[in-house]
Amino acid sequence: MKKFYLLILGVLVCQTVLAQENIEMKGLMAKEMKSFTAKMNAGNTNPNTLNYDLQYQRMDVSLNPSVAQISGSVTSHFKPTQAMSSIYFDLTNQLTVSQVTFHGQPLAFQQLATKEVKIDFTSSLPANVLDSLTIQYSGNPPTNNNAFFTNSQGGTPVLSTLNEPYGAQDWFPTKQSLNDKIERFDIKVTTPSQYSVASNGRLMSETILGSGQKLTFWRTQYPTAAYLVALSITNFVKLNDTMGNPPFPFVNYIYPGTSTNVGSMANIEWTKTVMNTFETYFGPYPFRNEKYGHMEFTAGGGMEHQTMSSMGSWSKQLIAHELAHQWFGDKVTCGAWNDIWLNEGFATFGEHVAYEKLLMTNTEFLNYLLSEKNYITSATGGSVYVADANLGSVGTIFSGRLSYSKGGYVVRMIKWILGETVFYQALKDYHARPNLAYNYVKTSDLNASLLQSTGRDFTGFFNDWIYGQGYPTYDIRWKQTGNQVTFKAGQTQSHASVSFFDMPLPIKVNGTGGQVAYFALNNTSNNQYFTETVSFPVASVQFNYEYQILEKNSTVAQDNTLSTSEAVLDQLSIYPNPAKDELFISGLKKQTDYNIVTADGRLVKKGNTEKKIDISALEKGVYFITIQQLNLKFIKE
After folding, report:
1. pLDDT band at 143 (very low <50, low <70, confident <90, very high)
2. What is the CATH number assigned to the segment(s) 472-564?
């Protein structure tokens, strides 16, 4: 009874923790969705910004967290990809541009209703020559988009930003389409001296100015997507530490009230542990030359701002999710919001890793996977990939069921297919490839990288699980004959977009004496037969025993009416056909007798084989090979 009580208690504790952390994640998704709603008309790409490479930006602005205003300048270094007589930057028309300076001279500009600044040069700029200009601006950023917002904590004002997906244009001129990362970014912020500014990169200096002002200077020299540039300002408590081997800075800017909260501080310290785990499985932290840390803000959930995640709460799930984003979302970033699963699915898989390796017993982890599987299959349709027609639907893009949970489970299924060792090496390869590292990626890039790393083409898999909709339901039948167990796998699909889910099926065979055998049945067609060898009487068969794959309402049953000859026929094949000198047999597990006869029934060859037969001496013509009571036809060239 004591053991049973502890098991129930453990399950209840696990469920309580998961429920709380799911609330935190819903807050994260709700914030992202709210930020997204008013910006959908921007689309994935602004075609007016495609003719130059934005290489460097320097922001020099004045901010006071008690007032939702901004004033200052942004200098941009760019290289035209073709001759250009004008240049566009994304910027809301609720901010006022007062001047554009180019080589010390003012330029003509227009602020457009399309939330752009169009700047005209006095003469055409040549292609591939680095140039720069400075935009001076000021005003009250939009408040309805939640990209730039003020609030208070402990009675003290706080100002924060959250750009995802198109909020950067709400407070500084930039290029926010998902096709051109900014190679370097300097952030210089003047504030009243009692406040501290947290932001991306490395802290270069804090300088006390006259009149009670302070200048804070952050610099990042890693390529950064505009939506990952961020800051937060209040009377932070600063925690400077190191982590990793070799060590790099671990920097946290937290509210005074948080600094005295034992639970929050313990979870912040736990970041070091999960960092070590992620470096083991994902590879070195991508921004080691600068830092990792957190800056607190008043939004719900969190946001994976590059090198310094913004945090509205401190659950271990949220900490792990935002940290995993530094590899998947920040180092490699989805190249279109259609492919947001490459950010959110992989970050959710980071939660899987933290739970499995650090936070849960095996039973608790299986309960977590079961809850995720049930959540994902709670509806029969919906694709992980966000179709263009649905880009206007905020609930589709930031779908907890599809972009987050199903995306994360798809990554888990890739691990099941490849095996843990090959899988984690393939992940390291994916974000380390020169054409992908610190760049934008699409699902096709992940597929090409997996093929290069493993030799396995996942095109069909992604067609089913990313572009297709729904899930399979399996009917698994089995029969034991001596040491042979025959399986038959039937499948139905919840949505017509997928005709068949091609997946290796996880099978656990339990013996009457406690023996266990494990199989992965390579299920490539419906009602497919398989034969496996076991050395013990079978008591039961379990399917999807560790929730390796997504499915719903599947059944397993012993069926002594299964035909073993159909099972053999389903597995055995001969190739090539026609054949010249050698005939190969696929599907045999041991040396097996065979006979070869001519079309008129004359025996011309017999023997035993496990793989191939020498037929070089046979004359050209039609033959039949009899093996395991099957007659298979082939042609000798």
Report:
1. confident
2. 2.60.40.1840
